[in-house]
Specification:
single chain, alpha/beta, 2,3-Dihydroxybiphenyl 1,2-Dioxygenase, domain 1, four-stranded mixed beta sheet, 3 helices, about 25% helix, globular
Length: about 140
């Protein structure tokens, strides 16, 4: 299998609220919520990098689509890593997230492997890590 992951979809409780968090709060680019004319079709896409998209879809709509019940979720099922170019940028992103309504659960700090990171929960409890890794050179 060739790695061709192009969309990461997050199930959210309130699409409009979550859209505002990511677009206005974190500044991710998006053309808005689309598909509202379809039952269970409303979704928002955010352009990330290299063709990767972040999608937001209401939890109940996703459950309907895949024929699975809505189970209790856990914030530690996975993390979304947002890598930045400096410690200062980590602090900036953490502050932006908090102002937008995120819950800071692990303030940014130097970590054992030589980097600098912090963690926050978005409006639906998805776990984000904002990290600077001195060994990684970021493009653009």
């Amino acid at each position: 299998m060739k790695p061709r992951i192009t969309v990461i979809t997050l199930a959210v409780n309130n699409l409009e609220q979550s859209f505002n968090f990511y677009r206005r709060g974190l500044g991710l680019p998006s053309e808005g919520i689309i598909g509202q004319e379809f039952e269970n079709g409303a979704v928002a896409f955010f352009e990330l990098q290299n063709g990767l998209k972040l999608a937001l879809w209401e939890r109940k709509s996703l459950a309907e689509e895949v024929n699975l019940p809505i189970d209790p979720s856990s914030s530690i099922e996975f993390t979304i890593g947002h890598n930045v170019g400096s410690k200062r940028e980590v602090d900036q992103v953490m502050l932006e997230a908090e102002k937008a309504g995120a819950k800071i659960i692990d303030p940014a700090k130097d970590v054992f492997w030589g980097g600098y990171s912090g963690h926050f929960l978005d409006l639906d409890g998805h776990l984000w890590e904002v990290v600077w890794n001195p060994e990684w050179e970021l493009e653009g």
